[in-house]
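name: query_chain
kind: protein
chains: 1
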Amino acid sequence: MNKVILMGRLTRDPEVRYSAGENALAIARYTLAVDRRFRRDGEATADFINCVSFGRTAEFAEKYYRQGLKIVVSGRIQTGSYTNRDGQKVYTTEVVVEEQEFAESKSASDNYAASHPQTSAPAPSMPAPGAASADGFMNIPDGIDEELPF
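structure:
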């Protein structure tokens, strides 16, 4: 069974794109900062988990989700790999979101945002340099479109 449930805060606003074709499908990507249960040297630590959602779930994220918002997602872990333009094999891991919901009230979210002004969260570590473009999306080599499941 492949099932994951996460609660964390969005490190940035979701990035939403639409697939090409007659029936364009929304694809939202965002990163959750998930607090670890144990602290290291009294300091809070977090894991930064990449998430992707499709269709109506992605459209919902685009409309309502903003940086700093605490949400709960459930879905499955998906791994993959591709060869980048430099010929290096890049391995990816992300959560494919099946369900998502708010984890706090609007007023609690606004209070958090007021007490934590635009601090930039560290970017999730990439497996290889140059694996992602400046917009955070993976560089997929030309000609691989026929192999993608969407």
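note: The CA atoms of residues 45 and 109 lie 20 Å apart.
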